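agent> call fold_tool(seq_1)
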Amino acid sequence: MKKLFIDTNIVIDLLAHRDPYYHESAALFSLADQKKTEISISSLTIANTSYIMMRKLDSKKTKEVLRKLRLIVKVLPLDDKIIGLALNDDSFTDFEDSIQYFTAIENNLDIIITRNLKDFRASKIPVLTARQFIETLKQDQ
């Protein structure tokens, strides 16, 4: 079973029903719900997603959505080591992407799933879009 690290944009695509990306993100999370893959996200993703979702929903509804999300994802901690790695790495121009990357690395995850492939050019582990990952599963069958 592949262990996936999901970038914030994919989570928001799912929860905010952002077109045209909603269906592929929903398919990805459905795989986790069916125990065909393991999905992890950073605790930073929870905070960022909450901030974005509160523009559409009130606080109570946002927390309800995030509680449901936690049922199918593993929320990884953001700690001093990850912050240090992100601060001392010059291969990422976006600090948030660097935090996400080092969270995936420090937790030995197999693949990063994002819509922004260019932001993870420096990655030492594979980086795919949700659609690309789903296509690889179809090829393996």
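agent> call fold_tool(seq_2)
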Amino acid sequence: MSTEHTSPDWARPVVYFSIEARDADAQREFYRALFNWGIGDGPIMQISTGPGSPEAGINGHINAGAVPRVSIYVQVRDIHATLERAESMGGTVVFRPYQIPGGAMIATITDPEGNSVGIVQQ
């Protein structure tokens, strides 16, 4: 049995992604056609990439925004310790931890070059 997840230095997995687009409806059609993804409607269009595929994938969403970008969300054991560590290494905390009702606790940082990364504690 692997001890990867019991070690304090286990690799933290990407558990979610977000695609922000100036024209979210057009992006939804692009990704539906390109990857055969099932993508919902509404202001936050949920993407379920795992069900029905040979290999399960992580889920995500598309939403409208002023700046096109893709963000990833990484699972950690201790969100507060991770935010402190990110700041000590030159990152910036953008959104402090908040609990999603019935779900995970999430926060957002930017790395030293300004890339947005979501932090997830489940």
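agent> summarizing second result for user.
The mean pLDDT is 87. Residues 76-122 form a domain with the 2,3-Dihydroxybiphenyl 1,2-Dioxygenase; domain 1 fold (CATH 3.10.180.10).
agent> awaiting next instruction.
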